[in-house]
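On clarity, I found the account of how folds are encoded harder to follow than it need be. What matters is that the chain and its backbone geometry are given together, residue for residue. I therefore recommend that a typical entry be quoted early in the introduction. An entry of this sort, consisting of the sequence and the corresponding backbone structure tokens, reads as follows:
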Amino acid sequence: MKTFKKHALTMGIQGALLSVMATMSPTTLAAEEAEALDSTKLEVIEVTARKRVENVQEVPISVTALQGEKLQAISSGAMDIRFLNARIPSLSVESSFGRTFPRFYMRGLGNSDFDLNASQPVSLVVDDVVQENPILKGFPVFDVARVEALGGPQGTLFGRNTPAGLVKFDSVKPSQDFDAFVSVSYGSKETSDVRAAVGGGLTDNLSARISVLNQDRGNYIDNKAPGYEEDDVLGGYTDQAMRLQFLYEGDDFNALFNYHMRDLDGEPVTFYANAFKPNSNELGGDGWDGRDTVWHDSASRATQQVETEGASLKLDFDLGDYTVTSITGYESAELFSRADVDGGYGAGWAVDCCGMPMGPGLIMIDSETSDGIPDHEQITQELRLTSNLSGDFNYQVGVFYFSEDLTIESYAYETVFGSGAETGYVIQEQETTAWAVFGSFDYDFSEKMSATFGIRYSADDKEYSNLRTMAPLGFLGQPDNVAGEVEVDDSHVSWDVSVSYKYTDDLNIYARVADTFRAPSIQGRSLFAWNDGISVADSETILSFETGVKSDILDGSGRVNASVFYYTMEDQQLTSVGGDSNTARLLNADETVGYGFELDSEFMLTENLAVTFGASYNNTELNDDNLSVPVCAQCTVTDPLNGNGQAIVDGNSLPHAPEWIYTFTARYSREIGDGEFYVYTDWAYRDEISFFLYESTEFTGDALLEGGARTGYAWETDSQEYDVSLFVRNMTDEQQAIGAVDFTNNTAIVNEERFVGAEFKVSFF
């Protein structure tokens, strides 16, 4: 009988087995091979959380890895990177832009800012290169070998802007062995998803791999606004991406070149005006007629276009006891996104004066705006020395350089009278330069106990300027020509100490203390401001304590990892978004306290049945007696208000910070005929969340439970493997708001509806 997908769990062990065959006696080899081929054993998961390949069970950091079939299943249906939301304990992902500009939250810490210059405390690293600008973070996930989520501060090895944690993507790398695949899926809303890759050796030392992606959906959302009726005007996209890699492997030198690009042509996220029932967070208000209907007066002009391009070169020099690694990265992005932000038609001010219609419900002020990045460049350089000593002491030391040039353009348009003419314009420019020196030092006190000490000095400098040449509120006296500029800089010494104790061969206990910072941030929301609109948030710092256990149980058929943590963040950078004053400003909170736990487990219950279960609890609290923020115009605020009518947010939890997250997957398979039949299901639950810093009835997201399933049949020939499957996402068709616009009407962003599709995949080897 041939080996099919159920044996994928043992492939990592088999690979390790082959690499050491020559050193084993026949008796030892037979025993090890039998153990490796036992399909009730879990595979060894290798991660690069500390910039070297390690068994995840031996890393003194909270790490969750997604790979293989689980990663394939949860990204089905042409999903963008938001498929990771609540699929990993303590990790949330959301966006008010749609398929680009994802916002990551880890252990409750994140940034709900929608500014194209926003920094985030959760860093994203793709193939060893940090993706700083939020537009870069939306690159599609395809032909990826593994996703790693590292909880807690990661400021010594990975540097700037990692106080909350790190999400790391590693693509499938070239090898001398030929392999290729093509997968095609088609489903709801005429959505197609085509992926393909081919790789292999070109010479004895040079190999290559090219991967491509094409995701397509036609517009399917109808506009019913009076005078603007149009079918199939929103909701569609064409998202294309490519990655080309070359790997040279010599006796003492390796070089990996990576080129990647993306071209997205689609529509922005859909906004539903007054979708909430009055004094409720349930959908069903005046503006809600289902996901497939909007009431916009500018839907025909909505568009979102993104182009990104980048390259990296990784060089490894093997000097025997030492390895020198150089990683050079270049990234660039261009964006233009235009949307009806108020989600309705007309405006209250025009009803009496001009007899213009308005709806659905009360639309106090109309807003059609766009933001663009006409120019962006990011350059990174890391140079690292790693020891490979045979003794108890080893280390990594290095230097890092970061440079980014960013230009942002913001526009406002006339909407009420239907012209769409430009009424406002602002240009922003920012130059960022950062550099660091770092080291990580490991010492084995005994066979059971080891410790790591990391330290990093970072310096960060930003120069920012903006210029408004056309004021959208000029008819109210807002001046046209307003300019501003500001420069901020800071430095910080980040450090961490971790201790790991191997209590038994199958149980590791660790403890970790870490400190790091996020450099100052600048925002220039000057389109509707009466002055230059510039606000600055000072550096935030975090001190985190964590302890955990990593255990292999049930004779290798089970794995249970758990951690508990506590942190205090000083001067946390936050954004007061919107409010009835229609402004967004940066601010600092005196202190934020968070604590909780994470659980990640996996079991091979039988040869045919595998399950995973994950859970996290996060409690966050703002401690600042003087912190208050503007509130919405029509929602029901539940926080106390100060004398200026602003909400006092002392004691509130952080936005988009669910207390509870649960994840569950199960896979059952059975050999039938010459192939394998399988059923896979995955479920994710996240607790209630607040969309903004202040708490209100309408802008509170209910708990959300979403599940998916995939069933199929796989079979092999001598050189191909085939897989035909049916799948469904959000199978219960849960329908609720997952975000909102803090504006003059209660505008909602809604989750994806049920998606049903079929997929065919063929792999060549």
The two ends are 18 Å apart (CA to CA). Confidence is low (pLDDT under 50) at residues 1-37. Residues 544 and 567 are 4 Å apart (CA to CA).
